[in-house]
Design a protein that fits this description.
Blueprint lengths: L2 H7 L6 H12 L9 H7 L4 H10 L5 H15 L5 H18 L5 H12 L4 E4 L5 H13 L5 E3 L2 H7 L8 E5 L6 H6 L1 H5 L4 E6 L12 E4 L3 H6 L5 H18 L1
Parallel strand pairs: 1-2, 1-3, 3-4, 4-5
Helix pairs in contact: 2-4, 3-4, 7-13, 8-13
C-alpha cells in the first residue's frame, strides 16, 4: 500500500490536530519536499508536536523518516508537466497576482505613506518568512534618511514594545495573520496599539487583524496554497511600491 493510501486508512485514528496535518498533506503532498516540520505545522495551523505525532501514528520515528518516504513516493508516482507549459502557467499566475495589486485599498496605502513621511517613530516587525520584507523596507527607508527600528523575532519585539509610544507607527508583516505568538510575548501591545498600526497580510480573515487600526491585504493567497515555495516576492513587490510612492512624495 502506498503512503497516501496509508494516511487515508488512518484517518479515524488521528487526533483533531493530527487530522489537520493529514488533510494538509493529502492536499499538498508535494510540499513535503521543500518544507521543514515547522513550516508544515504553520501551514496546517497546528504545531510541530502535532506533526511529529502524525508521523509516529503512521509508524515513523519522526518527520525526517516520513519526509524521506514521501519524497520517494512523489518521485515514483508524479509525472512532471512539460517545463515550458509549467513556466507559462507560473508566469500567467504571477501576472494575475500583479494585476490584483490594483484592488488594494489605495486610501490606506496613501495614509501609510503619509504617516511614514511625517517621521513619527517607526517600528517594523515580522518573523520567520515575513522577516525579509521587514529588512527590505527598513533599508529602503534608511536610504531615504528615515530612521526606523526593526524587530524580526518576538524576543526583540517584547523588549522594544516597552518603548513604543502612542505617536509611533507599527508596520507588521504577517502573511498568515496569526495571533498566537503575539498574544504570548506582547499581550499588552495587542491591547494598546498606537493609532498608526498597520498589518500587512495575505489573509483577509487574519485573527490578529482586529488588534491593528489598519489592515492591508495583499493578493496571492491562492497561489501561496498551490506553490511549493514561499512567496515572499509578493510582499517584496508591495514594499517596492511603497518605497517608490515615498520617493515620489519627497
Amino acid at each position: 500500500m502506498d503512503l497516501i493510501n496509508t494516511i487515508k486508512l488512518h484517518q479515524n485514528d488521528f487526533s483533531k490536530a493530527e487530522a489537520k496535518v493529514a488533510t494538509f498533506i493529502l492536499k499538498h503532498p508535494e510540499y513535503i519536499e521543500t518544507h521543514t516540520i515547522t513550516k508544515i505545522a504553520n501551514e496546517s495551523d497546528t504545531s510541530t508536536s502535532a506533526v511529529l505525532r502524525f508521523c509516529q501514528a503512521l509508524g515513523f520515528k519522526g518527520y525526517k523518516d516520513f519526509r524521506y518516504e514521501m519524497i520517494q513516493y512523489i518521485h515514483t508516482n508524479h509525472q512532471p508537466l512539460d517545463s515550458s507549459d509549467l513556466l507559462n502557467q507560473l508566469t500567467n499566475t504571477y501576472i494575475q497576482i500583479l494585476n490584483q495589486f490594483q484592488n488594494i485599498d489605495r486610501d490606506m496605502i496613501i495614509e501609510l505613506v503619509n504617516d511614514i513621511l511625517k517621521k513619527y517613530p517607526i517600528y517594523i516587525t515580522g518573523i520567520y518568512y515575513s522577516s525579509l520584507p521587514v529588512k527590505h523596507l527598513s533599508m529602503g527607508l534608511l536610504d531615504f534618511g528615515i530612521k526606523n527600528t526593526t524587530m524580526t523575532d518576538f524576543i526583540s519585539i517584547s523588549h522594544h514594545s516597552r518603548n513604543i509610544t502612542s505617536d509611533a507607527i507599527i508596520i507588521h508583516f504577517s502573511l498568515s495573520g496569526q495571533r498566537n505568538d503575539f498574544q504570548r510575548y506582547v499581550p499588552d501591545l495587542l491591547k494598546n496599539m498606537p493609532k498608526r498600526s498597520y498589518l500587512i497580510t495575505m489573509n483577509e480573515n487574519a485573527d490578529i487583524g482586529d488588534a491593528f487600526t489598519h489592515k492591508i491585504v495583499l493578493p496571492g493567497l491562492t497561489f501561496k496554497n498551490q506553490s511549493v515555495f514561499d512567496i515572499q516576492s509578493i510582499s517584496i513587490i508591495f514594499v517596492e511600491m511603497i518605497l517608490n510612492l515615498i520617493h515620489n512624495e519627497m
